[in-house]
Amino acid sequence: MKKQPLKAAVIGTGMIAHKAHIPAYQSMADYYTLDAVMDKTMASAQQTADLFGIKSAYDDVQKMFLEVQPDIVSICTPSATHAAFARLALQHGAHVLCEKPLALCYKETKELFDLAAKQNRMIMACQTLRYHPDYLAAHHYAQAGTLGPIYYAEFSAIRRRGIPTWGSFHRKAASGGGCLSDLGVHMLDAAIWIMGCPRFASITGTTAALFGQREEQVHTSLAESGAPAGISTKRRYNPSEFDVEGFAAGSIRFENGALLNFKTAWAVNLPPRFNLTMAGEKAGFSLPEMTLYSVLHQYQADITPRIFHEGPYDHHPFSGHFYLIENAARHLLYQEDLMVKPQETLLVTALIEGFYVAAAKGREVRADEIMNP
């Protein structure tokens, strides 16, 4: 790999680019130079370039690749465009960091990983919850055998009223899905990672969309709708465009016998909650409080480890993106292991695709229907 710093470019100028990717690249001068930003409109691209002092702005992605020749690109566009931009970046010899989901179906995701391998390039989905100290601790306990075989897990990723009203998340043509592919995917990915990426056998679930088309029901704060650091630009929310799920609940069976239940929502008449619990033969745990439940000799024991949040980026509302972007640089420059592995992203994509098929058909969907159609 070339000597540092790596030449970076960002595709898309929305909230996650402004509040996570661009600040992360610019905070790591030893690893990166951020040389270009591209958006579908030159006005947006130039506004972002001016705001952050980025050298070049483009509204033509082909021209950007030819003129800038970036070593790595971040894809921060609506989900339905991810695969096309990722494919183009790989074809131009760039490594890729892509906002989740990498693609909207298992087949297309596998094609991207196959192309990356052929081009000898890295492609990684921005599954940033893994970099949180408490989730890292849970993963450590699982991999160290402290929990024993995990046979049950469940998570909730619930916003009481948190429909994103500042982007295109509520439009299926742009995003491919609603709260599951936007919000629940983070907890789903973390669960799969902690469980050791078991092979899934089947999935079932249901969706609802009860509030997105009622303007009086979507009043919320930016933080509660997924923009804790605010936004630089805002697309007017039109309730008549809402055509994705605002609530999703499902159940996943794995080949090893484990079961994962989940529910996620942008808007639901339940209290907001983001939690993950797992039960193993030796111990269980709950997050975010990171408590272990087990026995000590003949006594029941609840153990709460002291986990310190003193990393260099822990103060940032999008700290996971900073750690992920640093992880990518250290992988490319020093062969550090990537935190997010292809097989894990493939499984998460298969589960999301399988869930939407199951919800649409009203029945359980087997893994081979998605992964070996």
Question: Descriptors for this entry?
Answer:
373 residues, alpha/beta, Rossmann fold, Dihydrodipicolinate Reductase, domain 2, 2 domains, 9-stranded mixed β-sheet, 6-stranded parallel β-sheet, 11 helices
How does this structure look, described?
- The chain has 373 residues and is of the alpha/beta class.
- The chain folds into 2 domains: 120 residues, NAD(P)-binding Rossmann-like Domain (Rossmann fold); 214 residues, 2-Layer Sandwich (Dihydrodipicolinate Reductase, domain 2).
- The protein has a 9-stranded mixed beta sheet with strand order 14-13-12-11-7-10-9-8-15.
- It has 11 helices and 15 strands.
- Helix 5 packs antiparallel against helix 10.
- The two termini are 38 Å apart.
- A hairpin with a 3-residue loop joins strand 12 and strand 13.
- The model has no long low-confidence stretch (mean pLDDT 94).
List the helices and strands and how they pair.
Blueprint: E1 6-11, H1 15-26, E2 32-38, H2 42-52, E3 56-58, H3 61-68, E4 72-75, H4 82-91, E5 95-98, H5 106-119, E6 123-125, H6 133-143, E7 150-158, H7 172-175, H8 179-195, E8 200-208, E9 247-254, E10 259-265, E11 273-280, E12 284-287, E13 291-296, E14 299-303, H9 319-334, H10 342-361, E15 365-366, H11 367-371
